[in-house]
Amino acid sequence: MTGFAAGSRARIALAVATAAGLALAVSGCGGSSGSSAASDGTVTITVNDMPAKTDPVNRKIFLEDVAAFEKLHPKIKVVPHEGQMDPQTFATKLAGGQLENAFYVYYTDPAGLIAKHQAADITPYLSQFPAADQVKPQLRKVFQDARGHTYGLPEGNYSMGLVYNRALFRQAGLDPDKPPTTWDEVRADARKIAALGKGMVGYGDYSKSNTGGWHFTAEMYSRGADVAKQQPDGSWKADFDNATGKAVLQQLHDMRWSDDSMGRRQLLEWADLLQMMGAGKLGMYLATADNIPTIASQYKGDPKDYGLGPIPGGKGTLAGGGGFMFSPKDTPEQIKAAMAWVVFKYENPDRIELGAQRAAEAKQPVGLPEPNIWTGAAAQTKSAADKKYANQPVGNYAPFQQALPGIPLILEPPKAQQIYAVLDTAMAKVLTQKDADIDALLSDASQQVDSLLAAP
Q: Where does the record locate the signal sequence feature (predicted)?
């Protein structure tokens, strides 16, 4: 959590209108360890997501917000903890009463926690927090069960798009305001960029350290397919040993070996493509919006040179993010107090502009299209704040922003990192072996993923 930009983990949110009217008196103790009620009705709650001491700027922002919240709510005491929910220790903390009253989770976590009754149902209290209605419905749905009951509040989001080098597009005779929107166009544009010579790579992709499987998944989604599919009995099975999976790998193989548009250096992992983009040697790759300021700050690229387009294919985009859930051991008073904190800090449009202002003052990115959890009037407020305080070339991201509302957001599969590790092999072989047997690679990977998904 950065403590800065509106609409993101960096958002500064103050729920004055919604939270000030809450009645938060309690009659006794209960809930997670560290939560208590004093005789005067004060509720003490524990929350995580506080930045570490190694991030002093954002930690300072966080603690300032704690103080501001407690001033607004003198009957609530916030005890902040560093870090987020750790799946390896979660069950132990819950059983031992050490789980925070409000704890941060990634979007891949809620379904399992809800199924195991390891999070509190906050549906009865949502009407007291109308600001939550301005969060995108597809993000709120992540925290809902089949009955429509809600167990958490979104905090931030991201989705995959196409980062591209506008300068190389111009040099190759391509329109930098019209990035490719189909995989055929990606292939054609990559050939033109690679034809510039001087070591230029038209399109880059990953194949190491789980990043190859991650991108394979994103590319499957973009074509309207899955990587894993839930069965009628609730179990999951691999769903990529098919024509779509073959099309993904075949195109990469052909771009690498027939077109020579992906460069000879392969077995790339996360930082490699950012470094290549920063050095002006890469035309395009799949990424999230926050890659662009990282390319500028860590790899000395010029932000004005980079654009962001929608994911090619446009039939789905890999999406993620996180939010807060609440301990099932919380009392109603603790739930309401913890929700008031989460709305104050992360989910109120009243302070979107302040978030953008503070981000700009701290030289944090302002103007990226994501994270952005808002819809309706709040989305308009964010857009205006971004325009007012932007330190990023907002116009370069217009193709992404215009297309995103029409592209379905799809979460990562269960056991995502383990699946990605398996799929790394398929990605690596098609990019390093000209005679790679794509059918065999998909079949072998599918069997391995089925075994992973069948394991408890």
A: 1-25
